[in-house]
UniProtKB/TrEMBL annotation:
Its main location: cytoplasm. GO terms for cellular component: cytoplasm. Directs the termination of nascent peptide synthesis (translation) in response to the termination codons UAA, UAG and UGA. The gene is prf1. This is Peptide chain release factor subunit 1.
Length: 419
C-alpha cells in the first residue's frame, strides 16, 4: 500500500476509534461491572481467554446478584468475541470493552466493543473492571502520532533518534576526537587552530552522516527535525549545511539543551513542546489556507455536504477536508413517487425528521437503514475516487470556520466543475 494510502487508513481508523471512545464515555455502569481489556500483539489469545475464564469464576463471589450477573455476562460476551481470533491478536494488539450499561428507565443493555489494531501498539496487558470503561490509555494512543527526527550535539558528543508520538527512541550516538582548547607545547598556535577546526568539521560531517542515514529514507513520513545543543555548536552545524538538503529543510527549530547524551533527546523534546504543537496545527493550517485562497480567488474550492458530495461523485476532489469535531449523520430520503433522492444532514443525537420530496412534494419516510454516519458516507466515496481525506482540527481560526461556517465539510478540487 502507498504511504498516502496508509495515512488515509489511519485517519479513518482514528475517526472510527474516536467515535467508539465517545460512545463508551457516555456509558455509566450501575455498579462495578464494566470490563475493559487491553491486549498487546504478542499476547496469546488463549492466555486472555484463560484469564477471562478465571475472572468469570471469581465473579461468582460477588454478593449483589445484579452485579454478579452483569460481570459474568460481560465476560461471557468477551469470550465469545475472542473466539474469532487466531493465536495472536492483530498488529498493534486490540482493546475489548463489555458491560451492562444504563439504557434509561432503570433498564440496562449489554454493550460489547472490540477495537482492533489501534494507531499505536498496546504496550501491556490490562484487565480492568470498574463503573467506567478504561478509556485513557486508548485516548493517549489516539493523540498526535507525529514522526520527528531528533539530533543533539556539542563538539564532543552527539545523539540522533526519533520522536514517535510521545515516545523518544534513541538510535545512534557518536563522540568526537576534537581536541580541547589548550594546545600542547611546541605546537604552533595557527596549526593547532587549523587542526581543531578540521576535527570539528569532521565531527559535524559524521553527525550529519548519521542523521542522513536515519532520516533520508523516512523523509516523506517525517513531520520535522529538531536540533538541540549548546550555542554556538548547533548553529554552526545548521549554518554549515552539513545535512542532506531535504533534511535541512525539515528542521522546524533549534533548542538549547544542557546534555547531548540520550537524556538530551528527551530535553530537546521538552523544550520543543510549543514548536511541536504548532507543527501539528501547521499541517491543518496549510490545507485551510489553500482552501480559502481558492474560495476567494480561484475556482477549486467546494464546501457543504451536498456540494462536496457531488464533486466527490464526479471524481473531481483532490482533498476532502473534514472538521475533526464533526459528528453528524446523513439521511437519504428515496422518494417512491418520483424516484428522486434527497439527503439531509442531522445531528448525531437527533431523531430522523419527517421529509417532503423536493421534486414532487410527496411525504417520504426514512428507515434506520437510510441513516448513516455522514463522514463515513463521504470517505467511502472518496476512497473509490482516489481522493485523500484530511481531518482538520478546530484549534485555529480557519479550522473553527470549517466547522461553523462551512458545515464541517469542504474540498479542494482537481479541476473546476461549476458545481
Ligand atoms: Zn418525489
Amino acid at each position: 500500500m502507498s504511504q498516502e494510502g496508509e495515512q488515509e487508513q489511519s485517519d479513518r481508523k482514528k475517526y472510527e476509534f474516536r467515535k467508539v471512545i465517545e460512545d463508551l464515555k457516555d456509558f455509566e455502569g450501575s455498579g462495578t461491572q464494566l470490563v475493559s481489556i487491553y491486549i498487546p500483539e504478542d499476547r496469546q489469545v488463549s492466555d486472555v481467554v484463560q484469564h477471562v475464564t478465571q475472572e468469570h469464576s471469581e465473579a461468582a463471589n460477588i454478593k449483589s446478584k445484579q452485579t454478579r450477573t452483569a460481570v459474568q455476562d460481560a465476560l461471557t460476551s468477551i469470550k465469545d468475541r475472542l473466539r474469532y481470533y487466531d493465536t495472536f491478536p492483530p498488529e498493534n494488539g486490540m482493546v475489548v470493552f463489555s458491560g451492562a450499561v444504563d439504557s434509561g428507565g432503570g433498564q440496562t443493555e449489554m454493550v460489547t466493543r472490540v477495537l482492533e489494531g489501534p494507531p499505536q501498539p498496546v504496550e501491556s496487558f490490562r484487565y480492568h473492571c470498574d463503573s467506567d470503561f478504561l478509556i485513557e490509555p486508548l485516548e493517549e494512543m489516539m493523540a498526535d502520532q507525529g514522526l520527528y527526527g531528533l539530533i543533539v550535539l556539542d563538539r564532543r558528543e552527539a545523539n540522533v533518534g526519533w520522536l514517535k508520538g510521545k515516545r523518544v527512541e534513541p538510535v545512534k550516538s557518536a563522540s568526537s576526537l576534537v581536541p580541547g582548547k589548550q594546545r600542547k607545547g611546541g605546537q604552533s598556535a595557527q596549526r593547532f587552530a587549523r587542526l581543531r577546526l578540521e576535527a570539528i568539521d569532521n565531527f559535524y560531517q559524521e553527525v550529519a552522516g548519521m542523521a542522513n542515514d536515519l532520516f533520508v529514507a523516512k523523509r516523506h513520513e517525517l513531520d520535522g527535525i529538531l536540533v538541540g545543543g549548546p550555542s554556538p555548536t548547533k548553529d554552526e552545524f545548521l549554518d554549515g549545511d552539513y545535512l542532506h538538503h531535504e533534511i535541512q529543510d525539515s528542521v522546524i527549530g533549534k533548542f538549547d539543551v544542557a546534555y547531548t547524551d540520550e537524556s538530551g533527546l528527551k530535553d530537546l523534546v521538552d523544550n520543543a513542546e510549543e514548536a511541536l504543537a504548532d507543527a501539528e496545527v501547521m499541517k491543518d493550517k496549510k490545507q485551510m489556507e489553500e482552501f480559502f485562497e481558492e474560495l476567494n480567488a480561484g475556482d477549486l474550492a467546494t464546501y457543504g455536504f451536498e456540494q462536496t458530495r457531488r464533486n466527490l461523485m464526479m471524481g473531481a476532489v483532490d482533498r476532502l477536508l473534514i472538521s475533526e469535531d464533526l459528528r453528524k449523520d446523513v439521511i437519504s430520503y428515496d422518494c417512491e413517487e418520483c424516484g428522486n433522492t434527497d439527503r439531509e444532514v442531522v445531528d448525531r443525537r437527533k431523531s430522523t425528521p419527517a421529509h417532503t420530496c423536493t421534486e414532487c412534494g410527496s411525504d417520504v419516510e426514512a428507515t434506520e437503514e437510510d441513516r448513516e454516519d455522514a463522514i463515513d458516507h463521504l470517505i467511502e466515496i472518496a476512497e473509490q475516487r482516489g481522493t485523500t481525506t484530511k481531518f482538520i482540527s478546530t484549534d485555529f481560526e480557519k479550522g473553527e470556520q470549517l466547522y461553523n461556517a462551512f458545515g464541517g465539510f469542504a474540498g479542494i478540487l482537481r479541476y473546476s466543475t461549476g458545481v
